[in-house]
Amino acid sequence: MNDSVESTFPEPGESRIGSINKRGLWTLYVKESRRFTKVWLQTLAAPAITTILFMIIFSLAFGGENRSMKGLEYSTFLAPGLLVMAMLQNAFANTSSSILIGKVQGNIVDVLMPPLSNSELMIGFVAGGLTRALAVGGSVAIAFLLMPSVSLTVHHWWAILYFGVSAGIMLSLVGIITGIWAEKFDQAAVITNFVVAPLSLLSGTFYSIERLSGNWQLISQANPFFYMIDGFRYGFIGVGDSDLTIGVIYIFILNLFLWLLAHSLFKSGYKLKS
């Protein structure tokens, strides 16, 4: 192992804090982070450019004079939703591809063999996915701030932090479950194309659900992506389409369920140790 890698690790005497394998957990996190930073043009720049193109296209198509949403210029309404959508998709991509590639290449054992508990494995993977989500979100936010038509003004920091971090955690967990379940890339693509993408696009990213009929509003309110995007947008524009208390509780319970499910899959070794 070269010196540059070793320099990122804790000293031997600091390898554990209580019962936590600090060195092992940090090593897994560094591995998960370097997976996307080494190919940043593909993992960071490309999603940012795609999101910026969404902004330009939809602003031209639905923006313009006298076009507003929730009393705001359309591009200002649209920006927070696009930010979260990019974060969701990249958090999922990071964890699902990491585990699936490890299984396909046969080196998943390198992650399972070290003295890491199931919870430590979970934390390492989720932290890597969350880091990628925040990195993409940060790059997109900087690009939006440079656009004269977009006004990102913080109204509620707690909502931005809670819903932004919760979104990254949720899709990282979904990515872990998908990576464990899938045996080939086609199966993982099914979840991306028929679950993650539709729920992202039909979550109020591009519109306010107030414009939908009653039944479609009920369907939207069952979509967890809607609460993450609406809550995150509320942090920037100060108004939302949902009851934030319901959103906070719903997202917390769903994240807890996904954590327990992913943990049980690691514990049982489902499609990992066979």
Short précis:
It is found in: Cell inner membrane; Membrane. By secondary structure, the chain is an all-alpha fold.
Describe this structure in words.
This is Transport permease protein. GO terms for molecular function: ABC-type transporter activity. It is found in: Cell inner membrane; Membrane. Its main location: membrane. The chain is mostly helical and about 270 residues long. The protein has one domain. It is about 70% helix and about 5% strand. The protein contains eleven helices and four strands; from the N terminus they run αββααββαααααααα. The protein has helices at about 5, 20-35, 40-60, 75-105, 110, 120-145, 155-180, 185-200, 215-220, 225-235, 245-270, and strands at about 15, 20, 70, 70-75. The strands form two sheets. Strands 1-2 form a two-stranded antiparallel sheet. The chain has a two-stranded antiparallel ribbon with strand order 3-4. Strand 3 (about 70) and strand 4 form a beta hairpin. Helix 3 (about 40-60) runs antiparallel to helix 4 (about 75-105), helix 3 (about 40-60) packs across helix 6 and helix 6 (about 120-145) packs across helix 11 (about 245-270). It starts with a helix and ends in a 6-residue tail after the last helix. Mean pLDDT is about 90; it is low at about 1-15.
